[in-house]
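Section 5.1 Outputs to date
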Amino acid sequence: MREEATAVEIRPHIRLLHGMRRPANWLQLVRFGLVGGVGFAVNLAVYALFVHSAGVDYHVAAVAAWLVAVINNFALNRRWTFDARGGRAHFQAIRFFVVSLVALGVSLLLLTLFVEGAGIAKVPAQALAVAASMPLNFLGNKLWSFRA
């Protein structure tokens, strides 16, 4: 580490270490994972329904599945994961939507790479893409959407 490093440069690292020591943060991550698991199942079910039963393009199906899962996940995360009922729901919803849009962009990019680049079947590729975007989703929602 450089000798001229300031407290401002070190602060995010220390904040992360302090946050990792708090059991409440780990419990929150577990709850987020459980809500994400429900959202993941909803996402895949809607996606498979649109792709296989309705014959919709897999990109369009991914967006539709994402939208249904986002609505479900916002309600569960706001109430159970982050216990953010005291905040203004419409501000939280907008922020949650923005974080989810960023995660969707990452997920769609990965989905396309998995399907067209790696030749992975569409539903498993969707599962991998959604799972890969979860850490981005958690951090964005914890630090911005539902911050205390």
